[in-house]
Amino acid sequence: MLGGISLLLTGLCACTPAAKEWQLVWEENFDQSATFDTAVWSKIPRGTADWNNYMSDWDSLYAVRHGHLVLRGIRNTTLPGDTAAYLTGGVFTQGKKSFMDGRLEIRAKLNGATGAWPAFWLLPEEGKWPMGGEIDIMERLSHDSIAYQTVHSHYTYDLGFQDTPPHGSTGPICPSDYNVYAVELHADSLCFYINGQHTFTYPRIETEQEGQFPFHQPFYLLLDMQLGGSWVGRIDPEQLPVEMYIDWVRFYQRR
Predict the structure, then answer these.
(1) Is 27 a catalytic residue?
(2) Number of domains into which the chain is organized
(3) Containing domain of residue 178, as a range?
């Protein structure tokens, strides 16, 4: 089967950003006076996975300051009735705003802490994980000077085809400054960038295996501060609180 794979190259040719080809169709600048726009964003509820097991709707984890959305990860020493050791804040656009066939960019500054795991990512409005797919625009671990960009699906996760084609890559970031993370969503490929530099492309391929490219459908966006888990490892409570500052989110479509 692997020898018979052929790449559909149409989308690969569209992965070099050119301003004249793209038109800004939506942006979020977080310029409200006190809180984020609840017509677009909701707080992420707590779950049982590594990424959301400390999520909380406590207002101290969220702020809009000077045109930035601030999301925090803290030790839980003050919230009555919550036995979680740590608390994190995150927002998503589920059921309110979705993205498809375009270029999504996020400018943010990520403060570091041992065990911090901030992420910007996309999940499908329809379909369970991993059949519906997952698009990780940015994940950063602790104090790393790189960010991870990855896709997950039934093909990569359940069937284990992580290298045919490669399902992820990394790119350098400036740990102490703002960086811009981007993904282009095409019908036959996903193209990833950090600070305008192309990091990798995940193409649709011809294969007899199921679920290789479930990504051409509406996805909602998650922006969240995460702490701990099997991937990032232990949390150092002495390095908390940790914050990330999201300057803007922009979505473009071809002219």
Answers:
(1) no
(2) 1
(3) 2-14+23-254
